[in-house]
Write a structure and sequence with these properties.
Layout lengths: L2 E4 L2 E4 L3 E2 L14 H14 L3 E3 L8 H12 L8 E6 L6 H15 L4 E6 L8 H13 L3 E7 L3 H10 L4 E7 L6 H4 L2 H7 L3 E5 L6 H4 L1 H9 L4 H10 L4 E3 L6 H9 L7 H8 L7
Parallel strand pairs: 3-4, 4-5, 5-6, 6-7, 7-8, 8-9, 9-10
Antiparallel strand pairs: 1-2
Helix pairs in contact: 1-2, 1-11, 2-3, 3-4, 9-10
The protein binds NADP nicotinamide-adenine-dinucleotide phosphate (NAP).
Length: 276
Amino acid sequence: MRFETIRGLTLPKIGFGTWTIGGEATPNPTVDSASMIVLRSALEVGYAHFDTAEYYAGGHAEELLGRAVRETKTKREDVLITTKVSPEHLSYDDVLKSCENSLRRLGMDYVDLYLIHWPRLWMNLKETFRALNKLVRDGKVRHLGVSNFKLKLLRQSQEYSETSILTDQVPYSLPNHLYVENGVIEYCQQNDILVTAYSPVKFRSIRANKVLGEVANAHSATPFQIALAWLVMQPRVITIPMSSNPAHIRENFDAADIELNADEIRRLNNAWKKSE
Ligand SMILES: NC(=O)c1ccc[n+]([C@@H]2O[C@H](COP(=O)([O-])OP(=O)(O)OC[C@H]3O[C@@H](n4cnc5c(N)ncnc54)[C@H](OP(=O)(O)O)[C@@H]3O)[C@@H](O)[C@H]2O)c1
């Protein structure tokens, strides 16, 4: 595994997503045992950064994640937890309440990273950060970040946050260059902000792309592994793929160790013409 160290925090280049753990927009107890197998398997493989949100399965993903950490006897300090406050909870009081609820569901007394999940039209970002700053001062949150924020809001967040914004979590993958095109990726790289690339492998077209197939063959790897390696070869970029298949969970973890050469990176950069 390769790592990024930023402002004293060391994060693995490849972490684990939890969307669909415990349900989708609402809890679905019928998938609990399958979800626990997935989380245990990810912890056993060695994933040390988990991404969740109060929105995922209506909070149930956080409950299962906390349970899996305890059941595998993983020490709290050996795992990094990112969770997120939903756009409808961005008022001062709601942010504090949302964080308390997330901590209760996780069964933890702090989270490593707390993000605004999505910006909302007419939100009072200054007020939201007043609450987020309090959470950091109170020790409930170690670092702050945002998600799905474009440049203007990212810059405003930097202004309102008492501590450095650690990450902007955005969609970024071989077929999706939207946040390259809107300048966020470059801005983050130049300003010591981590890019957390979400949905890194979810595009079906990954499987069929000719260049990706050729690079994968050259490394005896799968196209999905190359898609992850391409992301994490980039400075200040980490990613959080999700899989419920134990073989894929292992493959994705191992992808961080694949070294692409300059020619392969150049070919992959041009393998998709524009964002899908
Ligand atoms: N901040 C946000 O707004 C936001 C939005 C979306 C997602 N996220 C976070 O990012 C995480 C990842 O994004 P995502 O879940 O949308 O997409 P993703 O991880 O890119 O893709 C998941 C899909 O890819 C398949 N897959 C994964 N690894 C594979 C492999 N090695 N070989 C073949 N298929 C593979 C999975 O199927 P199998 O289960 O069969 O492997 C699953 O269908 C989420 O879980 C969530 O934590 C955040």
